[in-house]
Design a protein that fits this description.
The protein is mainly beta. It has no helices and twelve strands. The chain has strands at residues 8-12, 21-31, 35-44, 68-74, 80-85, 91-98, 101-102, 112-118, 121-128, 140-149, 155-159, 177-179.
Length: 186
């Protein structure tokens, strides 16, 4: 496993704070032949957050409307992929031809998820196979993001980089981490 730069801290969008969250960090590492390992860690008052449980699953196309960790992957061109990971254990993946132009009937490879909940922290280790990255040339660019739902309802949007204006995880400016991996051209 090849380590990349140390943990990356996500920041809340200025218009959507989450006072119960002390911080969110993500570590990224190469895994296997061209895959990725993402380690998310949310620290804070979990009782003040709404965390989906396996007993109350959410519609897969609405995971982003509740607490979930996310990653967006782009490699050259305009095409990108999005993965959402819910504390319920559910996940969803989407392929896009360009900005918010979702491709239908595309099945993305399944991630391997390992959740841990402890006093004051929620952690997730995600292992994505190389096939999770979109086709393209050059470095893989990641947008590391998290949606946090507070127990009283409001959502908070966390990212490595926020574009100007409203929260928008799909915006090209959010793909702020270049990953020097030699992933296969898929």
């Amino acid at each position: 496993m090849t380590s990349l730069p140390a943990n990356r801290a996500l920041t809340p969008h200025p218009e959507h704070p989450a006072p119960a969250v002390a911080g969110i960090a993500v570590a990224v590492a190469a895994h296997g032949s061209g895959g990725l390992q993402l380690d998310y860690h949310l620290a804070g008052d979990l009782a003040a957050l709404r965390l989906p449980s396996p007993a109350a699953p959410v519609a897969p196309d609405r995971l982003w409307a509740h607490t979930c960790f996310e990653v967006f992957l782009r490699r050259g061109g305009e095409a990108y992929r999005e993965y959402n990971f819910s504390p319920s254990g559910q996940w969803a993946g989407y392929a896009f031809a360009a900005y918010r132009q979702r491709l239908e009937n595309v099945t993305l490879p399944a991630p391997h998820l390992e959740w841990q909940v402890a006093e004051g922290s929620l952690s997730l280790r995600v292992t994505l196979p190389a096939e999770a990255a979109p086709a393209g040339d050059g470095e893989l660019h990641l947008a590391l993001t998290t949606v946090v739902e507070q127990a009283d309802g409001p959502l908070s949007y966390w990212a490595l980089a926020h574009p100007a204006g409203k929260a928008d995880f799909h915006h090209r400016d959010g793909f702020a981490l270049a990953v020097p991996l030699a992933l296969p051209d898929l």
